[in-house]
Amino acid sequence: MVQLQVGSCSTKVRGILFDKDGTLLQFISLWGWWAEKVMKDLEMELKKEGGSLPEDPGYILGVHIDADGSIRSHDRQGPLAMGSPTQMISIATYLLYKEGVPWNQAVQRMTALFEEANEQLLEHANIVPVTGVVPFLERCRQHGLRMAVVTADDKGPSEQHLQKMGIRHYFDAVVGDDCVSQGKPYPDMVELACREIGLEPHEIIVIGDSVGDMEMGRAAGSSLQVFIDEANQFDTAPESADVMIRSYEEIEMI
């Protein structure tokens, strides 16, 4: 086992589970373009039915929209940060349904809209790793820690994102929201990831950038919940976290 020292917290572990967006990669570097496209296309679909986006529409995805329509930040407690693709499609579907479109047709149109954005994402996104994450992953591998990704995104796209960043080879498993019955904040993803890497929840720590990550790890019995806030958006760690870090350099291995 490896002794980890994170701030005032110390624990012995055999593995680490990482959230993906905001934990391994800078969130807006991947999802900013995607969210802009989804919002523009959603507006067009609503206009076809004589409707329009609601006032201050950023809440639909949980993003902050500038006056020019660009998206440079997000709500860490919003749908894009914590929700599944299916949940976000449902939010958009409801808006179309409100304009009089039958639910089944609204689902089909919104699913196609989201899938188009997904298909174009890797071509347009400039994915930037979180500062220090690659050296940290290398240190983990050198110490023999087993690692997996547990993400609210689906497994297939997540594999592609990790491949594009050049870090997929560090992970023994990738678990997406579509791999389990219940996603974050439920413990299912942690439990499945632990089974796939041959460890028990008490033998791992969870590192993530949302309350959902922390609650998921705690519900599964993870040894430690580490909240990462590279962007300095939080003064203190959420109640569900054991400790907060600004950089991976704050995690010591003994």
From TrEMBL:
This is HAD family hydrolase. The keyword Lyase does not apply. Signal peptide: none annotated. One of its GO terms (molecular function) is hydrolase activity. InterPro entries: HAD-like_hydrolase_sf, HAD-like_sf, HAD-SF_hydro_IA, HAD_sf, PGP-like_dom2. Pfam families: Hydrolase. Coiled coil: none annotated. NCBIfam families: HAD-SF-IA-v1, HAD-SF-IA-v3.
